[in-house]
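Hi support team,

I submitted a single chain yesterday and got back a structure, but I'm not sure I'm reading the token output correctly. Could someone confirm the output below corresponds to the sequence I sent? I've pasted both exactly as they appear in my results page.

Thanks,
R.
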Amino acid sequence: MRRPRGTIHEQCCSPAAVPLAFPPPFSRCIGLRLCITLSLWAHSHAHRPTEKCTSSIAQKKNSMAATERDGGNHNVLDFNTYEDYLDQQVTGEDLFYLEDQDAARRIVELGYKGKDVLSRDEFEAAQQLARTGPLKRRESTEIITSAGKDVSDSPLLTALAKREALVRTGKLATVLFLRDYVGGQEVSAYIDYGHRLRSENFEAYFNKEKKLLPKRSDLSYYNWKTHTLFYNNSPTFQVLADSSLGLVMKHKRDRKAIHVDPSSPSPGENCSRTVVPCKDYLQVVIYDHVTRRKN
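Hi R., thanks for writing in. Yes, this is the structure output for that exact sequence:
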């Protein structure tokens, strides 16, 4: 995936493109870039053992129901596919040098970014173990944090409460666009609602103890004063920049895209765009994508 040359964050009147300047790629040949990068990583990372003893495999399988990255724990059930699992360990720097998502995944799979990466067979076995073992996900009994909360005075919280159960069960994927002032500076972000639900205590938001605000860890974050831009993939969405469509959020499971450019004639297949008037924010837009679940 090429790093974006620009991104679009909505404004009340018209979209604005934020230009980014990046140095040219080292090579147009993916094979050559792969060799160069493998060589660089070989000097900065421990080599992966060429042989694995039976005991080490058994030890990995006993602990592979959960993986750890960047100090945070991820259950293997958080990833819909093996590719999603590899993507969680791919960085923006990897994509800049390689300019190819598959090549970046291959480097992770080969162990050049750490030897504790599950193979495809191990990943599938871990998912099966997590579904049937003590870590079995209990979606049917998952707590709906908005239940019983009076949020009628907040259009945003009302909209989020209506979507919570559908998002938690994976039937709906929702991206929020929020624009507001934080610390006296205007900021905006495209937020993966499902990812925030899984990683934060949303009861505090529905109880109005905290205000939902943009974060640098969101899908895309922009500070309008400092012109600081961040973008991140989530377990559900991959952030892409298209020369004609602008910023695109690609759903990792059904591969459909949400077009968040406000000038786009359509938000995408099985997608809707809803403007939410809310006095607590400068701007709120909700993008809903009805997902295609694979049995």
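A quick pointer for reading it: The chain is about 30% helix and 25% strand. Let us know if anything else looks off.

Best,
Support desk
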